[in-house]
Amino acid sequence: MTDDDTNRPWYREPWPWVLIAIPGITILWSIFLILFSMEQHVSMVEDDYYDEGMGINRELSRDIEAANLGLSGRVSFTDGERLDILLESPERRNWERLEVELTHATLGDRDQTTIAQRVGEGRYRARIQPLSDGRWYIDIRNTGNDWRLRGALKTPLEEPLTLQPIREARQQ
């Protein structure tokens, strides 16, 4: 060993800097991840999950009303941009318009709401944006929001989807 090696200050050695760099890089990476996560909006997470959960119980009355009316529906897509609905009811009720909500299972920015106009006895038609492949939920209701029919579909839809009131509503 030379006399120069023993008298070198610690900051001239490479190993202390390597050991200091590891936690330093970790801290910088953590700050970056925190800032990045604060800028991102996650549409799948509901802010007030308790109220949303309690809302499920309140909304059951619309399903019960659909069951009391004896409603059922059949939904099909034409050309990917037209939604055809056939509503069946023992009393042949006809509403002028229906509200249709299409909700993507995971991507909230693809959700759609549209109005279906009556085109015949129990038949309704609406224009929609083309649906991407995947799982979707459909919610059909009258404009007074008195009843609703819900269902799940997987696109591309090869045969018409049948909608009926949920089982709990039919039992009451």
Give a quick rundown of the structure:
A hairpin with a 5-residue loop joins strand 6 (134-142) and strand 7 (148-155).
- Count the E strands: 8
Percent of residues in helices comes to 25-40%
Strand content: 25-35%
CATH homologous superfamily identity of the largest domain? Immunoglobulins
Total discrete domains: 2
Just name the CATH architecture of the largest domain.
Sandwich
Order of helices and strands: HHHEEEEEEEEH
**Biggest β-sheet, characterized?**
8 strands, antiparallel
Low-confidence stretches: none
Shape: elongated
Cα(first) to Cα(last) distance is 93 Å
Mean pLDDT: 83
Q: And the CATH topology of the largest domain? A: Immunoglobulin-like
The level 1 CATH classification of the largest domain is Mainly Beta
List keywords for this structure.
8-stranded antiparallel β-sheet; 8 strands; elongated; 4 helices; 172 residues; alpha+beta; Immunoglobulin-like; FixH; single chain; 33% helix
Verbal overview:
The chain is α+β, with helices and mostly antiparallel strands. It has four helices and eight strands, in the order H-H-H-E-E-E-E-E-E-E-E-H. The chain has helices at 3-6, 14-39, 49-69, 167-171, and strands at residues 72-78, 82-88, 97-104, 112-120, 123-127, 134-142, 148-155, 161-163. It has an eight-stranded antiparallel beta sheet with strand order 7-6-3-4-5-2-1-8. The longest helix is centred in the N-terminal third of the chain and has 26 residues, at 14-39. It is elongated and about 100 Å long. The N and C termini lie far apart (93 Å).
